[in-house]
Write a structure and sequence with these properties.
With 417 residues, the chain is of the alpha/beta class. 41% of the residues lie in helices and 24% in strands.
Length: 417
């Protein structure tokens, strides 16, 4: 390391005015400046922050991609210099054009945070010099580059203690895992672009994505989908219920910030389109479920007055999506076997035979049972879930009814392929 410190004052000497109030930084033979990509809140329909991105040119004015620039740096001292120089340039350029409340997202190598104390004070002085409060700063940490958990936690805690928010970047790739989320407790989780790309190509991923987003939110994190480049991907992001979005579809990185009013109108149109698509999907859902609901209500009425089950189920079992009918007591235990047709039994997947015998099985943990118990006499409809007796998805209609023999929860499973 030698005697070089790379404190804020030393870094500041490497920054020069450019055009239109912008500044550039000098590193070796390269000139470094900033571009800002907007990050939108889907609920507020406005940009709430901007990710600062490095833009570099060589001495002969050729564009140098960031990965190429950072790939040429190997010594610890030069890593610290380049990292700090980029942040200082970004902070000064952002301060010159931002409002008083938007976040600035800064990418930081956690290793630099750990060794930074050996190179003089920097970050707090840099923010103060540019009149940027720490609570307006989101530190993006590429956690997959760090194998040592203690290094990662030290980096996160350092910025949290300063008053910054911390975001885990590129979640869903490489070493990303839930253990790290629980240990680090970031404020924001940025889903890697590969997730929305997979969701666009794969129906199963698309169906599972809202649950993954919900899980991250339940841990206590704000969710952000990055790399959204098409309208279809934007609609998937909205459908997944992420909090924020980023990507070329919403805005390219630019030296200037976006027009909030224009973007609000654009996002409103996208939201209306999603609402229309969701309405069509709900209509399809209801058209399928409603056909079965009519017959299910008739079945419930017959059972209430004591008509035997086999005589009550014929019409329902003849419907194409119906898979089985079964009954639970008020503790959730199944009474008797599943009521189904021989044809359904003949086509049952033999690999799941150990799970096919359901007499006395306890379904009290199932959502459809709990909801039926909470709302007596009303028919409940579950979300799609994986059936235990095959590879297919199913939904369950359920209702708690009074019969001559006591209380029963009647259940009807529908195939939801």
């Amino acid at each position: 390391m030698g005697s070089q410190t790379y404190s804020f004052s030393e870094i500041d000497h490497r920054i020069s005015p450019a055009t239109a109030g912008k500044v550039t930084g000098a590193f070796r033979d390269y000139t470094i400046t900033s571009a800002f990509q907007p990050i939108f809140s889907l609920s507020h329909r406005n940009p709430v922050g901007y990710e600062a991105l490095c833009r570099a040119r060589s001495a002969d004015d050729l564009v140098v991609p960031p990965l190429e620039l950072f790939g040429q740096v190997h010594s610890e001292a030069d890593n610290v210099l380049l990292d700090r120089l980029c942040r200082a340039v970004h902070a000064q350029n952002f301060s010159a054009c931002a409002d008083t409340k938007s976040w600035i997202f800064l990418n930081v190598n956690p290793l630099i945070t750990v060794v930074g104390k050996n190179y003089g004070s920097f970050f707090s002085e840099m923010l103060a010099s540019n009149r940027i409060s720490p609570n307006r700063v989101v530190i993006e940490i590429l956690e997959q580059n760090i194998r040592d958990e203690s290094i990662l936690c030290a980096a996160v805690n350092y910025y949290k203690e300063l008053g910054c928010l911390v975001a885990i970047d590129d979640f869903g790739t490489s070493h990303s895992n839930f253990d790290r989320l629980w240990n680090i407790q970031p404020d924001i989780v940025k889903f890697d672009r590969s997730i929305v790309v997979q969701a666009e190509a794969n129906r199963i991923v698309r169906k599972a994505l809202p649950s993954l987003v919900s899980l991250i939110q339940e841990i206590g994190c704000i969710t952000l989908m990055e790399g959204v480049e098409t309208e279809q991907q934007a609609l998937i992001a909205i459908d997944s219920n992420v909090d924020m979005v980023q990507g070329y579809y919403f805005g390219y990185p630019k030296e200037t910030l976006v027009d909030s009013q224009r973007e609000e109108s654009s996002l409103s149109k996208l939201g209306h389109k999603h609402t229309e698509i969701a309405a069509i999907e709900r209509a399809k859902y209801r058209s399928i479920v409603d056909q079965c609901l009519i017959e299910f209500r008739r079945l419930l009425e017959k059972i209430r007055i004591g008509i035997a089950v086999p005589e009550s189920c014929g019409t329902l079992l003849a419907m194409s999506r119906v898979r089985r009918i079964y009954f639970l007591d008020d503790n959730g235990r199944q009474i008797g076997k599943n009521v189904t047709t021989q044809q359904m039994l003949d086509y049952a997947d033999p690999r799941y035979k150990p799970l096919s015998e359901a007499v006395d099985a306890n379904w009290s943990r199932r959502y459809y049972f709990r909801q039926a118990m909470l709302h007596p006499g009303e028919i409940q409809i579950s979300r799609p879930y994986r059936s235990l007796v095959g590879q297919h998805q199913c939904i369950t209609l359920s209702s708690l009814i009074e019969t001559p023999g006591g209380k029963l929860v009647a259940c009807l499973d529908l195939d939801w392929a």
